[in-house]
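Problem statement: downstream parser choked on a complex file, so we are re-checking the raw output for the adenosine-3',5'-cyclic-monophosphate run. The parser issue turned out to be on our end (a line-ending mismatch), but while we're here, posting the original submission so the record is complete.
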Amino acid sequence: MTQRTLSIIKPDAVEARKTGAIVSRLEEEGFKVVAMKRIHLTRAQAEGFYAEHKGRGFFDELCTFMSRGPIVVMALEREDAVAKYREVIGATDPAKAAAGTIRKLYGSNVGENAVHGSDKPETAVREIGYFFAGFEV
Ligand code: CMP
């Protein structure tokens, strides 16, 4: 079934000028970029996006990191997009990610791990709605 997922290229990967390489890889993997923009989140906007993690030990560090520089957010579409995207990016911790995955290639550690992806289809709908207005996607 055709499905959508939200992708974020995080500040570490944007700073390292890996945006093009990552978008290119995703297109090669069969994803269609149905919406894309480069934005610099405020801390409050980062906190809003990661609200479900509020109260966890890494929340503060995560929001500081996600608002330290520009990110590139995309709505991606393909067959089984959520699961396939998670396969292509690899495990949250780049050290545990499989060879050739985006996080293995471009991530540094569990915090600075190059990309974000929605964890399930319902989350994808909410996350795409957080960044894109209805007429944009
Ligand atoms: P992401 O997919 O963006 O969703 C939540 C993020 O929290 C996760 O990727 C990690 O980058 C970040 N994070 C930082 N520290 C941890 C941790 N100890 N465990 C899980 N996630 C963490």
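For whoever reads this later: The pocket of adenosine-3',5'-cyclic-monophosphate is lined by residues 53, 58, 62, 92, 110-111, 113, 116 (CB under 6 Å).
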